[in-house]
Structure formats: structure tokens, C-alpha cells
Design goal:
globular; cell inner membrane; two-stranded antiparallel sheet; transmembrane; mainly alpha; Trk system potassium uptake protein; 2 strands
């Protein structure tokens, strides 16, 4: 138990600093003179005081954290911060239950984008900004988590390249290298977000909508300020801008950093995930557009291509924006989009799911096993971009995929057992565990997750956390071995 106190000391400091992030929506509330001004005073005071008390109470027991502490630190940070993030929502909307508020903020910080709120157009600007700020802050944390921290814990697809890739991801200590890594990555993240804001403003959004949607696009969070999501704007120019930045966000931010530092696009060609991501999504857009046009959903192929391109890229990259109710399309199309949400995003991006690098590795492992059926004594190493992949990593990826599928099936069955229909249950879990946002049927793009019972809402919140922490990081805490000295 004593080993937990130094971690709680860090959590206390994180909560204390988190209180200052609420100053931004507070300032927006004063600027717009909206009805939520009172919601932030108490929220900031409670969050700051709780963090300060926890930090002071454990200050004498602090020590340098070890790599093993990272599992508990990451899990606690992602579970505790959404709880404090609920305070502005609960103070402004007293009818909202803590369960629903926690789902909303967990969805925001894990960049899932699933919502239980309706009437978004009528919400005070500061509340909408708070939701999107959670998206953006969660995206910041995810980049550092995925690129710098999880590889050190032996989790996350990017550990494949930890030894080979130059740049901000080679160090073996949690500090101080991670601070330098975080600074570099956050500068890239903030710079691309600024470019997205300007591009959306030029495309026709107001400054407020441009900021909110840029936050959601770069974090692949998918929150919108409108119930109709991006369909509210009905603008091909806005959709084109968002498609570009969603694809950028689905690539590894360490690759963006290296491209900017080297002032060269050649880095993207050396990242095996980039051509696979763009190729898979490009072919899918053309094929699914043809499929639904042939089925008579749209009279024109180009109209079908417009709607398919936006919604498919949005779901495949795990963002969650929508510009139409694609739940009404022939069932193959939305199911294929949800399948892509499992595999498309790159490691080190703000997307979720299995990640493209693991898929490439599993395909090569499948090919090797087929060849071994013919040449049983042959030594067949697996290589990606001329880098030899050890069997240890192959086994770890196999274990991850097995746990991912098991979690998907078990959580879906739990929702079905609780009374939800199979399509809604299965797609809700696949959307939550991939941090993609909308599912189908009762939780489709034209509805919200408000239809779920309290128990079902907690199951989906757990699925979001499980997916965001790459499964291993959370499940290892439930093993007796982790708690032994």
C-alpha cells in the first residue's frame, strides 16, 4: 500500500493543475455572458482544494517513480480527472446524474465523442467549449501516453519502433526525457490545431465553431456544438477541411514531429502505417460509395462519394463526426466503417482500436504460419521496413488482439444480458472501446447514448477507458503479480 502514496502525490498535483483548465470556459462564459458562469466557481474551488489536500497529505512520501508505477499512474489519471471534469456540468445541469456526467467527460477525455446530451445548439458556449477542451486536452495526453509512456511499459504498438526510430521516443526513463518529448509533441499538436482553426474559419465556420471543431478533429474526439454534428453546416468545403485534418490526426505525431524538424515529407514514406492507412481508407471510400449508390441510397455517385468520404473517414479514424444519418444506409456500409475503426488509426496518433501497426504485424504472422505449413523447418523472420521483429513482440501483439476480442465479446454480451438489442450492444461497445463515438440502432449517429440505463452507461464508460489505455495498462492492475513487491 505504501507504494501507492507517491503515485497519489502525483495525482494530487495533476488534479490541482487540472483546476486551472476550467479558467478557460470561465473566461468564455464572461465573454458571452452565458448562463453557466456560476458553474465554474465552485468547480474550480473543489478541484483545486481536493488536489491540494491530496498533494500535501502525501508530500512526505514522494519518491522518484519507476516504470512499473506508470500503469497505476496512467489508469488513475484517466479515471480521476473525468470525475472532477463533471463538476461544471453538474452545477449547470442539476438534473444530470453523476453517471451520465461521468460518461460525457470520460467520452471527452478519452476522445470517444459519444454523448448523452441533446440540445447542444442551446447549451451555453462555455459548456460546449468545456466539452471540446476535454477532447483537446485528452488528445494531448493520449499523444504523450501513446508515443512516450506506453512503449516504456511494453504496451502500445509503437514499442516496435522504440529502438529504431530517431527522435522523441527512445528514452527508458519516465523523466525528464518525457517532459522534453511532451513539449515537442504538444507544440506540433498545438500548431496543427491552429492551422485547422484557421482553415475551418476560411471554409465558413464562425470562430467559436472553428475552435471547437478543430479541438475535436485534432483529438479525434468528435464532439460538436450542434445536434446535427457537421451536417448542421451542409458545406463540402468544411467537410473537406475536416477530412484532411482527421487523417493528419490519425497518423503518428512523432512522424509529424520528424517531418517538421527535417522539413521533409519523405518521413511519411518511411512510416509503414501511413500508406496502409491512406490506401485502406481511399479504397474503402470509393468502394462503399459505389455500393450505396448502386443500392439506390443516392441518385448520384458523386453525392454518395461526398457523404461516404466524410462519414467513413470520421469513423475509420475514430473521430465520430457525422453529416448524415448513415445508420439508414445498407447495413454493410456502417458495419464496414466500424470494422475500419478497429484497425485504421496509427500508433502514436489520437485514434483508438487495435492500430494499423499491429494489423500489419498480424498479417505478416499469418503469412509466416501459412508458409510454415509447406516449409516446416524454415526460419522465417518477420520484418517491417527492413526491421526484424522479435517473436516476443509478435506474441505480445497476439495477446493484445486476443484480449481485445475477448473484451469486445464479453462487454457486448453484458449489454445484451442487461436488455439492450444485439446490434446496439455490439456497436456501442465497438464504438466505445475504439473511442470512435456513435454506434448503430439505439446509439446511432442520429441519436445519443441517453437511452442506456445507468448500468449500461457504466459498462460503456469502462469500455472507453479500457480501449484508451490499450487494455494491458488497465487489466494488469487486476493481477496479483502487479501488487507483489
Amino acid at each position: 500500500m505504501l507504494r501507492v502514496f507517491p503515485i497519489l502525490n502525483v495525482i494530487g498535483l495533476v488534479v490541482l493543475l487540472f483546476a486551472f483548465t476550467m479558467l478557460t470556459p470561465l473566461a468564455v462564459s464572461f465573454y458571452y455572458q452565458d448562463a453557466a458562469r456560476h458553474a465554474y466557481d465552485a468547480a474550480i474551488l473543489i478541484t483545486f482544494t481536493a488536489g491540494l489536500i491530496l498533494w500535501l497529505a502525501t508530500h512526505s512520501m514522494r519518491r522518484e517513480l519507476k516504470t512499473r508505477d506508470g500503469f497505476l499512474l496512467v489508469a488513475l489519471a484517466w479515471a480521476v480527472l473525468p470525475a472532477f471534469a463533471t463538476l461544471p456540468l453538474l452545477f449547470y445541469m442539476p438534473h444530470l446524474s453523476f453517471t451520465d456526467a461521468y460518461f460525457e467527460t470520460m467520452s471527452g477525455m478519452t476522445t470517444t465523442g459519444a454523448t448523452i446530451l441533446s440540445g447542444l445548439d442551446q447549451l451555453p458556449p462555455s459548456i460546449n467549449l468545456w466539452r471540446h477542451l476535454l477532447n483537446w486536452l485528452g488528445g494531448m495526453g493520449i499523444i504523450v501516453l501513446a508515443v512516450a509512456i506506453l512503449p516504456l511499459l511494453g504496451v502500445g504498438g509503437r514499442q516496435l519502433y522504440k529502438a529504431e526510430t530517431p527522435g522523441p521516443m527512445k528514452d527508458a526513463r519516465l523523466t525528464p526525457r518525457i517532459a522534453q518529448t511532451a513539449k515537442s509533441l504538444w507544440l506540433v499538436y498545438a500548431g496543427i490545431t491552429l492551422a485547422c482553426i484557421i482553415a475551418l474559419r476560411i471554409a465558413g465556420m464562425s470562430w467559436f465553431d472553428a475552435v471547437c471543431h478543430a479541438f475535436a478533429a485534432m483529438s479525434l474526439g468528435g464532439f460538436s456544438t450542434h445536434d446535427a454534428s457537421v451536417g448542421y453546416f451542409d458545406s463540402p468545403a468544411i467537410e473537406a477541411v475536416l477530412i484532411f485534418f482527421m487523417l493528419v490526426a490519425a497518423m503518428n505525431f512523432a512522424t509529424h514531429f520528424l517531418a517538421l524538424r527535417g522539413r521533409s515529407l519523405r518521413v511519411y514514406l518511411h512510416d509503414p502505417e501511413v500508406p496502409a492507412l491512406l490506401g485502406l481508407i481511399g479504397v474503402s471510400c470509393i468502394g462503399v460509395a459505389f455500393y450505396i449508390w448502386h443500392a439506390g441510397t443516392y441518385a448520384s455517385y458523386w453525392t454518395a462519394l461526398r457523404y461516404v468520404s466524410f462519414n467513413l473517414v470520421s469513423i475509420a479514424t475514430d473521430c465520430g463526426f457525422a453529416n448524415t444519418d448513415y445508420g439508414k444506409w445498407p447495413i454493410f456500409a456502417p458495419l464496414w466503417m466500424l470494422l475500419l475503426s478497429c484497425v485504421s488509426a496509427s500508433s502514436g496518433s489520437t485514434g483508438g482500436g487495435i492500430k494499423m501497426i499491429r494489423v500489419l504485424l498480424m498479417l505478416k504472422q499469418g503469412k509466416r504460419e501459412l508458409e510454415k505449413q509447406i516449409h516446416s523447418a524454415a526460419l522465417l523472420p518477420i520484418k517491417i521496413r527492413q526491421s526484424m521483429i522479435s517473436n516476443q513482440i509478435v506474441f505480445a501483439v497476439q495477446a493484445f488482439v486476443m484480449l481485445y476480442v475477448t473484451s469486445l465479446v464479453l462487454l457486448s454480451l453484458i449489454l445484451v444480458a442487461s436488455g439492450l438489442d444485439f446490434i446496439s450492444a455490439f456497436t456501442a461497445i465497438i464504438a466505445c472501446i475504439n473511442n470512435a463515438g456513435p454506434g448503430l440502432n439505439q446509439v446511432g449517429p442520429a441519436t445519443t447514448y441517453a437511452v442506456l440505463t445507468g448500468f449500461q452507461t457504466w459498462v460503456c464508460s469502462f469500455a472507453m477507458l479500457l480501449g484508451r489505455l490499450e487494455i494491458f495498462t488497465l487489466l494488469v492492475l487486476f493481477t496479483p503479480a502487479y501488487w507483489r513487491k
